[in-house]
Amino acid sequence: MGASLLRLHFHDCFVNGCDASVLLDDIPPSFKGEKTASPNANSLRGFEVIDTIKSKVESICPGVVSCADILAVAARDSVTALGGPSWQVELGRRDSTTASFDAARSHTIGQAQCSLFRGRLYNETDLDSELATSLKSNCPSTSGDENLSPLDATSPVRFDNAYFNNLVHNKGLLHSDQQLFSGGSTEAQVKTYSTNPTAFYEDFANAMVKMGKLSPLTGTNGQIRTNCRKVN
């Protein structure tokens, strides 16, 4: 669940900013939110956890803490609980009353559906042969689109730098991941992170702080939702 909460925060911030728009439910036919938009449909998880946190916060401090701030703090605490770094979360965001469509992801933890890596698995030659064999048992060439495999097969439930070691050894699950170590400008950074987890943790924490500042709603903009799934 930690990976899912981190992913929720990413998907929220990289649309119109960190405004909890990703949490809004559809209201047919007048409003379509981000939850059911591709590639989020049947992919994003953790909404019930945010609901529980929001309910407990509202019972103690009603109308003060936004859903956007809860997402930001939950993402930080999830990374820390999984063995990753911590960082200071700046608070004061407000919640949007609208939604948009887009996506972003973090691949150090979490899983991917078979349909997202089948092309790499069966058509590309730079995938470690042992990993490919194990993946094919769960991702047939013509079925099992929604079957899940870990983005980091080495330590799937721990936040660490194994993801970068995987790339160095041609074990990137997704094509886009392996491209980070394919002779381009990012290869040196991958090598650094693969041998220096401290550097990765520091850079990741700094990046999360910066991401959390993407176009927040403040002042009188937006609102503090009582229920994260719908506007007040």
TrEMBL record:
One of its GO terms (biological process) is hydrogen peroxide catabolic process. The active site is at residue 11. Disulfide bonds join 13-18, 67-228, 114-139. This is peroxidase. Belongs to the peroxidase family. Its EC number is 1.11.1.7. It catalyses: 2 a phenolic donor + H2O2 = 2 a phenolic radical donor + 2 H2O. Keywords: Calcium, Disulfide bond, Heme, Iron, Metal-binding, Oxidoreductase, Peroxidase. The keyword Metal-binding applies. Heme b binds at residue 107. Its cofactor is heme b; Ca(2+). It is an enzyme of class 1 (oxidoreductase).
